[in-house]
Amino acid sequence: MSAASSAQPFRQRDSGLYVPDEYSRIREVWTRDELRLINRVTKLLNSRGIQVMFACENPKCVDTKISKAPGLGGEYILRCNCKDRVFQRTF
Length: 91
Hints:
Blueprint: H1 3-7, E1 10-12, E2 18-20, E3 26-30, H2 32-47, E4 54-55, E5 65-70, E6 76-79, E7 83-87
Parallel strand pairs: 3-7
Antiparallel strand pairs: 1-2, 4-5, 5-6, 6-7
């Protein structure tokens, strides 16, 4: 296995095709206002001693935990095993 293939793993889609991992997820684009709301609620709960964890409700999703992922050009992405939730950038 070469370094290029280990840097960009492939996953099999329902159609049987193998595609790069970053393109194998459903992509949702959320607004900047939605990101601000999530950040405000998270800060409020954290200040009250409550830890926030996001989880995917899709029963077919293997890894239901949603985590922050690096995006191209500084995008903010919340990612689980089946979906990328990308927040719009403001210029």
